[in-house]
Every structure is written in C-alpha cells, then in structure tokens.
Amino acid sequence: MADYIKFVDVTKCDGCRACMVACKNWNDLPTVTEEYSGSYQSHEKVNAHTWNVITYNEHTTANGGFEWLFRHQSCLHCVEAACEKACPEDAISHTKFGSVVIDHDKCVGCGYCTTNCTFDVVELATYKDKNGKEYRKAQKCTLCTDRLEQGLQPACVVACHTDCLVYDEKETVLAEAEKRLAKIKERFPNANIYNPQGIKGTTTVYLLADKPSVYGLPENPKVPLSQVVWKDYAQPLGKAMFGATTMAVVGAVIANAMKKDKGGHEEGGRDHE
Amino acid sequence: MSKKNGRMVKRFNKGFIISHWVNALAFFVLYISALPMYTEFFDWLYPVFGGPAGARLVHRIAAVCFMLPLPIMIFFDLKGFINWMKNIFSWKKHDLKFFPEFAKEFFGRKANVPKQDFFNAGEKANSWLMIITTIMLIGSGLIMWFPQKFSQTVVMWAYPIHNIGLGLAAAVVVGHIYMSVALAKPSLQGIFKGEVSEEYAKDHHGRWYEELKQEEKKKKHA
Q: Per-residue pLDDT for B1 more than 60?
C-alpha cells in the first residue's frame, strides 16, 4: 500500500468551517461553547471535543493591506510522536495509515501526552461513569482511522469544498505541494511547505502562506532532550538499577548463607568484628 | 544479642522515630500507587485503588504526607535533627575506610570496619541519597501536580527528574531495608523504641559509644 498523507493548502481555505462540522458529526463530539474573544475564530484552539479548528489570523500585507490567514488546525500525526513516547501506558500508537491513535482502554488519563505534545493538540476529556465517578481520557483527531479502514477519506477532507484539504498518495501530494508553492510565491514570499524533518515529518503536510511561527507552529520541532533523557536513559536505567540492587541483596543472602553452611556457628548473624 | 548484659542506651527521640516512619509509609504508598504507571507489569494494581483516578488520589494524599517528615523532625526533635545534620556533613578517614571494608562484610567475607560515628558512613551516604532524591521527587512532583503554573519546558523536564529520583530512591530503599533487617537487626529496636543495646552501640557505632561513655564519666565526676 502506498503511503497516504493529508495535505492542507491553507491558501485555498476560505474559513467556511465545514471541516469542523464534519468532524463533530462523524466523531459524534459534543458542542464546546467558549466565551467570545473578540475574534471571528470559533475556539481558542483545538480541545478534547473539538478535534479541528480553523484559526483566523489577522494579517497585514507588505503594502499595508489586510487579509485573513486561515489554517485548519488539527493533530499532525507526527512520525516521531512526542505523545506516543511520553505515554506510560503504551496507549498511543501508529496505525498502518500513519495516523497516531489513542487506545482508550489503555489510557489512564495521566495527561503526560498533553504536556509533551509538540503542537499542543492532545487534551484530556472528563467523563462520568454509571456511578457518577469522574474519569479522564486523552482525546484528539484520529485522522478518521475508522473511515480509512473502510476505504473512505477523513470526514474533514470530504467536507472541504475548496480542495484545501486533500488526502492522497504521499508522492502525488508532495509534488502538488511544490507546484502550488511555486505558484503562490509571488503573492506570499514567505510561503513554505511544513513537513518538519526534526520529527521525521508529519502525516499532515501544510502549504503555509507565511512562516510557521505566524501560524503558531514551531519553526523546527525536534524530539525534546527531556524525553530522550527520560525514556531512553532514565527509565531503563532506573529499572536496571532497581534490579542490580535486588541482585546485590540476593547475592549477599546467598554468600552469607554459604558462609554459615561452611561452619559458621554464630547465631544471629551479626558480623561486625 | 544481649549475652553480656541487658543494658540499653537511648538512640532516637519520639520525633525522629515518627518522622522516619511517616517518611517510610508515605514512600511505600507512593511507590505502590505509581507502580502500575511505571511498568505495565503492575497494571493489575489499578483495580486495587479503584482505577487510575483512585491511584492518582492516593498518590497525592501520600505525597502530602511525604512532605511532613522534615517539619515533624524540626518541631519535635530539633536536637536529633541537628545531630543528624552534623553527622552527615562530617566525613573523616574512618568514614571513607568504611566502604571497602563494608563491601567485604556485605558479601560475607572477613572485614575490619573502623569505629563509626552516631551514623556510620553507610547511613550518611543513605541520608544524602535520600535527601537528594526526596528533593528531586517533591520538586518535580509539585510541577507535575500543577503543570498550568509552569512553562512546558519545565513540566517536560519534571518527568525525567521524577523518574530518576524514583529509580535512585527505590534502589536506596532496598539496600536500607535489607541492611537493617538482615545485617543489623538490633538497630530495628532503635528505630521502633528509640533504644539499642549497649553492645550494639559499641559494635556498630564505636565512636558514638565512646562519646557516651565519656559523657557518663563527666556526669559522675560532676
């Protein structure tokens, strides 16, 4: 199977929010009402029940004009996903579609993924069980993995009426992205293709009209050092050290027992002097 | 153990003992309630706490208890606390010589351990490791408890620090318990009842014992 990716050409977005509605619809997500913040933007950012949001950036052009910079904000499905690495329960994994999904049977709602996410996308949702007891689960866009499994496209892509959102073979998409970039360079000199290689690329590739930071995206995200220290060194070393101490104790018990066998006659095993 | 005579000497005050056991109990509860998150192997512990949310609650209650030993010690046994601090800051020849000799003894070989202070060099090292890991665990734990008050970088570093603190502390605890239960059983009476046999004091803490004797003499002469 060829690799498929989602392509977001923000220069084609007209801010209609059909992708947001389609997402809520397909994934059966409840309404999240937020206070009016003085912007046309519906929500401050994605949240546990709103898996994509169109951000409305008010932007001044080079000659002092005004224009909207829209961006379909959602999980990017990183190839090296910080949330997956941070999860202590192995609840987050990559599917064969390259999408990063959360197994809600395994998720314990610790929130490690939410603080580690490179793009501040994962959020905790609070639910109530039959007895009224609260529990939490991490939630985010699944790239409609359930639809992909049925040979369908993600709900947001289907809903998009300007072809800003495309789900297609990786090679086709990246070639198209280059073509579009050449075309828009004149109007948007800072335009670029956002597919950060510091995390080995993402399964959602953007064509941005301006620098990533203008859209609130990190310029050059990397696997954080804190995670390398934590997961590649501290955790295995800690487990090893605990094992080593236990082994030393076991070794000491055996060595002392053997000594006693050989002709130790003192009771109580007090060994000083 | 008390072949010669049953004479006991005072080692710890109540405040010190309570502080020790609050610390031990809190650590144990913290350890057990976090274990299913540390390794998958202990996932069966979740139901014991009524699910992950229950484990989280227990962990946080125990976390507050884990911060109490220092104030308890300072309020109820300032003398003992000062003595402990003085001890762990004093490192002399007999302390350094302790370790190679102790290693021999630990694995059942003949050893000549030099006379030790109120706290022997091993206990001093244990104290330091415990202080350092406790600071690491409480500091990073508070950051993880209130992540919204700190920047993302700080919160992200709290995880590895909590993790390293736990690995070190757990290793120290295993050694500490083994040594008291298996190697120096009479010391247990010290941390439960506050008294140890004179013989134990002489054998394990020779320098402290000599100090005690000298004080006694002074008192007699006075």
A: no
